Each structure stands twice: as structure tokens, then as C-alpha cells.
User: What shape does this take?
Amino acid sequence: MPAIDFATAHLAPRAPTNPEFLEDLERTMALLIFPPDKMAPSLVTLLDPSLRKEVAKRVNEALLQSQNERTKAKIFELVKLRAWSESKAREAERCIPKKIDIGLDPDQNGQNGSQESDSQGTGEGEPMVT
Assistant: This one.
């Protein structure tokens, strides 16, 4: 098995110098060697899909940061900015609607409850521009 060969050749020599590393290495090897029905309960929790998802998310973020790339899509920042600006406008008692449609509901077609027509007469709302 390539993973065990790699661990034996490259990771095992580091284990004696760092007890924490040794413990992690042993747990990882146990995951590779033993079937899930024969594992200790503390190891079975490492197979939980939610843990895998969280680890994958952290690894992806670390890789993106190391390459000086964004770790989150721009849309997250835009949504936060929109919420902040709405909050500030309400605090300043500006006259804004209670609910502002952002055009993501296909049933609304960006109509926001009104009967606006598009400029091309196709009956469809304008697409969101990103």
C-alpha cells in the first residue's frame, strides 16, 4: 500500500523527535490498516463525514492563502456589504423598503412584486451581473 510505504520511509523517522507527531501518525496508520468495524470508538469518530468536510475546507483555505488567492467567493463579501449598508441606512432612518429583493428567486424574475417590463420585451427579468 503506497500510503504505508510513504509513512514508513518519510514520516516514521520524524516520530521519535515529536510525541504529538507520533500520536497523529499512529492514529492515521490505524485508519488505513483496520476496518471501521474493528476500530476503537475514538478512531471511528475520525471517519465522520462532517469531520472530513471541515478538514477539506481548512486544507483548501490554507492552500488558497499560500497562493495569495481568495479563500471565499466574492459573493460572500458582497452579501455582507449589502447587509451592512442596509443596516446603516435603517439606522440613519432612510426611507428604504422593508424587504429588498436581490433577484435570486426565479419565480419573481426580479420583479419585486411589481409589473416592470424588460427592455427587450421577452417577459424575463434582467439577469444579475457579476
Summary: The chain is about 50% helix and 0% strand. Helices lie at 2-11, 19-33, 41-44, 49-66, 74-91.
